[in-house]
Design brief:
heterodimer; A: 364 residues; mainly alpha; two-stranded antiparallel sheet; 2 strands; elongated; B: mainly alpha; 8 helices; 60% helix; 2% strand; membrane (chain A); Peripherin_LEL (chain A); transmembrane (chain A); Peripherin/rom-1 (chain A); transmembrane helix (chain A)
Chain lengths: 364, 352
């Protein structure tokens, strides 16, 4: 009982081959799209490398790049095969290759699906990488004289301006780190010395934020220092003031940004996966219908095409048997009692009367 | 005296028609590209229209868009004529349309050159318009509670951050303007009262700038207030400090941005112009060569092609005569209408 059999006349077969040829070329283009999506993702992650701690994030774009390249190659080969399938003589060339090709492509489409699912499952790693990365970047904000870290101030400032965010989770993160370098602190002043002594580690902490936290939507000029001190500013109440600084945290902003990108990329990869699967189904129908044509001998006749010759269960059983016997080819045949040197009498056929020949006279 | 005569055997005519047909397709795409570039320039100018006082500069993208669209139409027509020119029986129907078509297309194509020249000539006007617009923007920065001006603060802040500039000519423009609204000034404090009294108009002026002037590339946290006072900040000297604020003025930043855009668009427009002129010249040759074939029995004879049948001066005199005749014909038509009305009345009493 074949799985999903369809009857194919000669014209239908030819049309299927031509359509599949065009679809395979479209699949080459989608393979290129996959490749460029991988490159785009890689570039986006590398752009903010300073703000992300070490993680396995690079595996997703690498997988997409590899899958895209292999898709191009496989579909190019598939196009060639389908082009030749219109002519039954040329099909003979590809007859032996087609079944392995279909099996390989089937497993390849599985890897495309894995790539799509990886895009959706990156959340946890992303969040962790961003938390650690942003925390370190903010800690080294003041180290503009240390080689290797001197660009972190600019990176963090540009991030906060571009993504309209402040701090890791909110602006209060800036209150807990020293973001003003000691080079610009006058140690002879009492106020500075007091602040340094007010905590265990001797850090200059204050309730102020860098200028890049300032919101452009605020109706009043930005208040970045003494934020929690209502009396320092006229007509100011920090509990009700919402527009002065950006309220969103940069971790959330970056996470949303990357999640959007990942979801769009994942959706595109899923659509490409469905397309590849449909092309593969068409190729399988083409292969089985052409093989049936060869079995019947007449190139112009109608033939059946199917996905599997027998039902799923039987096919699975027969494949398992094949795999079992693969391991047995070097085992001994027990019908001769374990001794391979025993001479078994041959069951010969002695002509139409079946009379064994007379033994030759022996010379004495 | 014929202008630039060329001999055209049959094969050359055929090849000219085919090549011209192909070229007209290329020119159609080139016209579409000119249109999109004009549209892009217009949107970019429109985005910053809040800091521009006059809209004079918009004539450049408008011209580009109009000519781009028209050239698409011109090239479709030229392609059709080329297709028909290979068939001598179908060519004569275009005969009456072609001379006015040539005048019209030459005029439109020269508008491209006009647009290019204008893009350079209007630069002082753009600069002046930006100067006035930015001055107003900085003046109304504090009026976030006045309807109609409440977005000026946001516009100027975003502009300064995006173009990495500060003030009109430079950051000192902020020292001459009160950019902090009176709603946020404590008039009971001595400092505020002193500052307000220190100038004739009673404005709160200070040597400080808004936060959007701060340069992220500076190694130290941004200093926006008391910029001229070295003693207020530790290890600070305003004469030598370069990285603290953006040093460029917004007017210069915007002018260089728009000039850069127009300089990029310039070569493409020039290419489109040359392509279009080449098509028109070749089409003229094709037309005149085909006119020699019309009416002949043997289609494959050699004919002459030229740009003008007579010399330039003679052609101009001829066109002047033609135009005069047209005008006279219109006048005579009115005069004869009045005389024919008068005549039957004279006839009637005679026959009565």
């Amino acid at each position: 009982m074949a799985v999903l059999p369809i009857k194919f006349t000669k014209t239908k077969r030819d049309k299927l081959a031509q359509v599949l040829w065009v679809l395979n070329w479209i699949s080459v283009v989608t393979g290129i799209i996959l490749f460029s999506l991988g490159i785009f993702l890689k570039v986006e992650i590398n752009k903010r490398q300073d703000l992300m701690a070490e993680s396995q994030l690079q595996s997703v774009p690498n997988m997409l790049i590899a899958v895209g390249l292999i898709a191009c190659l496989i579909n190019f080969l598939g196009g060639k095969i389908c082009y030749d399938c219109v002519d039954t003589n040329k099909f003979l060339r590809w007859k032996l290759v087609m079944l392995p090709y279909i099996i390989c492509t089937f497993f390849f489409t599985l890897s495309v699906l894995v790539g799509a699912l990886m895009c959706y499952s990156m959340h946890g790693q992303l969040e962790e990488a961003l938390t650690l990365g942003l925390r370190d970047a903010m800690r080294h904000y003041k180290d503009t004289d240390t080689p290797g870290r001197c660009f972190l101030k600019r990176t963090v400032d540009l991030l906060q301006i571009q993504f309209q965010c402040c701090g890791n989770e909110g602006y209060r993160d800036w209150f807990q780190i020293q973001w003003v370098s000691n080079r610009y602190l006058d140690m002879s002043q009492r106020e500075v010395v007091d602040r340094l002594r007010s905590n265990v580690e001797g850090k200059y902490l204050m309730d102020g934020v860098p200028f890049s936290c300032c919101s452009v939507n605020s109706p009043r000029p930005c208040i970045q220092h003494q934020i929690t001190n209502n009396s320092a500013h006229f007509n100011y109440d920090f509990q009700t003031e919402e527009l002065n600084l950006w309220t969103r945290g940069c971790r959330q902003a970056l996470r949303d940004y990357y999640t959007n990108i990942m979801h769009s990329v994942g959706l595109t990869v899923l659509i490409i996966w469905l397309f590849e699967l449909s092309v593969l189904t068409g190729v399988r129908y083409l292969q089985t219908s052409l093989e049936n044509v060869l079995r019947q001998g007449d190139p112009e006749c109608e033939s059946d095409g199917w996905l599997l010759e027998n039902s799923f269960v039987e096919t699975a059983r027969s494949n398992l048997n094949i795999i079992k016997h693969l391991g047995k080819f070097n085992q001994i045949n027990i019908s001769s009692n374990g001794d391979p040197n025993l001479d078994k009498p041959p069951t010969a056929h002695y002509g139409p009367d079946n009379v064994p020949p007379k033994p030759l006279p022996m010379a004495s | 005296m014929v202008l630039l005569k060329m001999k055209f055997p049959f094969q050359k005519r055929v090849r000219l028609a085919q090549g011209l047909w192909l070229l007209s397709w290329v020119a159609m795409f080139s016209g579409a590209i000119t249109f999109t570039m004009g549209a892009f320039l217009k949107t970019e100018l429109h985005r910053r229209s809040e800091v521009m006082h006059s809209m004079d500069i918009h004539i450049v993208p408008n011209l580009l868009m109009a000519v781009g669209l028209a050239s698409v139409g011109i090239n479709i027509f030229a392609g059709k004529v080329c297709q028909d020119s290979l068939d001598p029986s179908r060519f004569p129907r275009w005969k009456t349309f072609l001379p006015p078509f040539f005048c019209f297309s030459v005029f439109l194509t020269s508008l491209l050159l006009v647009a290019m020249i204008l893009s350079f000539a209007l630069q002082p006007s753009l600069e002046e318009s930006l100067k006035i617009g930015l001055k107003n923007g900085i003046r109304f920065y504090k009026d976030t509670d006045t309807p109609g001006r409440c977005f000026q603060k946001e516009t100027i802040d975003r502009l300064q951050i995006e173009f990495q500039c500060c003030g009109n000519t430079d950051y000192r423009d902020w020292f001459e303007v009160q950019w902090i609204s009176n709603r946020y000034l404590d008039f009971t404090s001595k400092e505020v009262k002193d500052r307000v009294r220190s100038n004739v108009d009673g404005r709160y002026l200070l040597d400080g700038v808004p936060f959007s002037c701060c340069n992220p590339a500076s190694p130290r946290p941004c200093i926006q207030y008391s910029l001229r006072d070295n003693s207020v900040h530790y290890n600070y000297e305003y004469q030598t400090e370069e990285l603290n604020l953006y040093s460029r003025g917004c007017r210069q930043a915007l002018v260089s941005y728009y000039m850069g855009l127009m300089n990029t668009i310039g070569p493409c427009v020039l290419f489109d112009f040359l392509l279009q002129m080449a098509i028109l010249v070749s089409l003229r040759y094709l037309q005149t060569a085909m006119e020699g074939v019309i009416g002949q029995e043997d289609v494959e004879i050699e004919t002459d092609g030229y740009i003008l049948e007579k010399g330039v001066k003679e052609t101009l005199l001829e066109t002047k005569e033609k135009v005069k005749k047209l005008l006279q014909f219109a006048q005579v038509g009115d005069a004869s209408a009045t005389t024919t009305d008068a005549q039957p009345e004279e006839e009637k009493p005679a026959t009565a």
